[in-house]
TrEMBL record:
Pfam families: SASA. It comes from Sphingomonas yabuuchiae. SUPFAM superfamilies: SGNH hydrolase. Signal peptide: none annotated. One of its GO terms (molecular function) is hydrolase activity, acting on ester bonds. Keywords: Hydrolase. This is Sialate O-acetylesterase domain-containing protein. Residues 5-152 form the Sialate O-acetylesterase domain.
Length: 269
């Protein structure tokens, strides 16, 4: 197996997707010189959040798709398989910036699940960092293991491993909401209580969350501020920053983290 290095530290999705991007041109030259590649890992977007460059969802979707299309066209590999690495947390505590983080993550998941030749590579939000930005050695090892599992699955012609994911929600009175997760057969979820990472909304506005506990193999009960007969929604891992201990993981050997949700899931009831 050969690797073609193309990443440039401190760069943004906006820069990579731009017409005439010198960084993209350098990567294309390296790929062509190597005689082509079979897959491409695309992990860029966290710095856009940090630099407050993130627009609305349509803008971020267009940037990711533009970059992928340009790389396929310029390398002469129209069906190049792309794995998307999830953006890491930007831990500033600024609500506007956290919303940008959510938009970027939602765009990543949307593209990964909506293109026959794009796959979601791995989540990074739960990996340890040593300076608030860069992963520790252990974090890098875990990211590599997650990516390797996805690549092996692709080589074997099967779907890659996926962590828990939010599929539905239902109102339980005015101050509780039960969420249901999709989960790989044979595994459970952790932790049992003090779960972090969920967001509950009332007509799109965040409602204070006071608790989250596991109530079954695929269900979690959220307690929150009172919501009347309005549009109640739930999201996971978008505007929040769940960590390794309190974020939802499965109980597989790889301990896969829950995937960021595809936007807000509206609650029934």
């Amino acid at each position: 197996m050969r690797f073609v290095r193309g990443g440039v530290g401190g760069t943004t999705l906006v820069q990579w997707a731009a017409t005439g991007s010198s960084m993209r041109a350098d990567l294309v030259r390296a790929i062509v010189a190597a005689g082509g590649v079979d897959i491409l890992l695309l992990q860029v977007g966290r710095n856009d959040v940090a630099d407050r460059l993130v627009g609305d969802l349509a803008t971020q979707l267009a940037l990711i798709r533009t970059l992928i299309a340009a790389l396929r066209r310029e390398t002469g590999l129209p069906d190049l398989t792309v794995f998307i690495g999830g953006s890491q947390n930007v831990l500033t505590g600024d609500p506007a910036q956290q919303r940008m983080q959510g938009t970027q993550r939602q765009a990543e998941m949307t593209v990964a699940l909506g293109d026959a030749h794009v796959r979601y590579g791995f989540a990074t939000y739960d990996l340890p960092v040593f300076d608030g930005t860069h992963q520790t050695e252990q974090g890098q090892i875990r990211a590599g293991q997650r990516f390797a599992a996805q690549v092996l699955a692709w080589l074997q012609g099967r779907a890659g491993p996926r962590g828990p994911r939010l599929v539905s929600a239902r109102a339980v009175g005015t101050s509780q909401t039960e969420v249901t997760l999709a989960l790989t057969d044979g595994v459970d979820i952790t932790p049992a209580s003090n779960i972090l990472g969920f967001q509950v909304t009332d007509n799109g506005q965040a409602v204070p969350l006071t608790g989250a506990v596991r109530t079954g193999r695929t269900t979690i009960l959220l307690s929150h501020g009172a919501i009347g007969q309005t549009a109640r929604g739930v999201a996971y891992g978008l505007t929040t920053a769940p960590d390794d201990q309190n974020g939802v993981h499965d109980t597989s050997a790889d301990r896969l983290p829950m995937e960021p949700s595809l936007g807000i899931v509206m609650a029934a009831g």
